[in-house]
Write a structure and sequence with these properties.
364 residues, alpha+beta, 5-stranded mixed sheet, 4-stranded mixed sheet, 10 helices, 15 strands, 41% helix
């Protein structure tokens, strides 16, 4: 029995050691910092460590799997600087930073292929920021007639950078740092970079599919709200307490419109939706409105005030936690999706004249 217990204890100790990650850092140059903290990429705190007067720090933490993080350096006068990171259980990483008034520059990395790739990313990104700042200054000083050429220079510089960066990431697509960098750099313009996201996701999914970044990107890659896809079902309660379904309108063109009484752009777009409804309601066209309101009174008052005369209004009163909005990948409002008589998505994000033009093309 004692021998069995000893084996179990040794196995537990080995497992505990395998989960520990160590990051030893040295900050050279101007050391403005008193401490450095480790956070998961979703902002969950992990640990913190002091930075000594000579710029040295040691971070240790227990983690259960490879994951995306960031290091947050805090210093005098509220100074904060952030570095993205990918760490795995058992990592022993040495990093040398050079601190300047503008940035913390990673000068050397030992012990991690992921962090080496992240260093290469910053090696490309920091010169880009300097170049773009210089071009912006050139633009500000240029005569009006010369500004379009300077603006094109700005766009060209960023385009070349983007292409070179994504080529580097694809060449390192087996490293989870590749998709973290892609996420950090291009997530705000996901659709334009979807092909690279998909390439990296496909390569990493078998081994790293459950990481924070991979889960978020996976939801976007398999986004059901794309032209040609069947529209997901919507079921909700109307202002008068009746339950309605989007599928009940099959056979018509239907504009699914996400809005809220508190959303000024939505209220500004409502007259355009009303005009479309009034023009085509007798020609197998309807509107299905999903509100992100939290107050029933405000929702009902806005429907009446804006003349939203169609009967298909639903609201869950959960604002951005609305399960319908989440299922339809709604990140901002107003947001609309036009569905054809067969229940498939015809167009996305139609506003203003674009809505009128599309309906004129489809409905004769």
């Amino acid at each position: 029995m004692k021998k069995i217990l000893l084996v179990v204890a040794l196995l537990w100790a080995a497992a505990s050691y395998a989960g520990e990650v160590r990051v030893d850092g040295v900050i050279t140059g101007k050391n403005f910092f008193q401490n450095v903290s480790l956070y998961y990429i979703n902002n969950d705190f992990v640990t913190t460590a002091p930075v000594s007067p000579d710029g040295k720090f040691n971070l240790t933490a227990d983690i259960s799997a490879t994951e995306s993080f960031y290091l947050l350096f805090k210093g005098t006068n509220g100074l904060k600087r952030q570095i993205i990171a990918v760490l795995s259980p058992g990592d022993n990483i040495d990093i040398v930073f050079e601190s300047t008034y503008a940035a913390n520059i990673i000068k050397e990395v030992k012990g991690s292929a992921d962090m080496t790739l992240i260093k290469s990313y910053y090696d490309k990104n920091l010169p880009l920021q300097d170049d773009l700042k210089a071009i912006q200054n050139e633009y500000d000083k240029a005569e009006a007639i010369d500004r379009p050429a300077v603006q094109q220079k700005f766009y060209t510089r960023y385009q070349v950078y983007s292409q070179e960066l994504e080529k580097m990431l694809i060449a390192n697509k087996t490293l989870p740092a590749s998709i973290l960098i892609e996420f950090a750099e291009f997530n705000s313009d996901f659709s334009a970079h979807k092909a690279t996201f998909k390439t990296l996701y496909t390569a990493l999914q078998p081994k790293y599919g459950n990481t924070l970044v991979m889960r978020e990107i996976g939801e976007k890659i398999v986004n059901p709200i794309e032209v040609g896809n069947p529209a997901p079902e919507i079921e909700g309660v109307t202002p008068d307490g009746k339950t309605i379904k989007l599928s009940s309108l099959k056979g018509k063109y239907v504009l699914v419109d996400f809005w809220a009484s508190w959303c000024r752009p939505c209220r500004g777009e409502n007259p355009n939706v009303v005009a479309a409804y009034n023009k085509y309601k007798g020609k197998k066209f309807d509107v299905f409105s999903v509100s992100l309101d939290s107050d029933a009174g405000a929702w009902k008052n806005a429907i009446e005030a804006d003349g939203l005369a169609w009967k298909n209004h639903v609201c869950t009163f959960k604002r951005w936690n609305c399960p319908i909005a989440k299922a339809w990948r709604v990140n901002s409002i107003p947001f609309s999706v036009l569905i054809g008589p067969d229940g498939k998505i015809v167009a996305i994000s139609l506003r203003g004249e674009a809505l009128q033009t599309k309906l004129a093309d489809l409905i004769k």
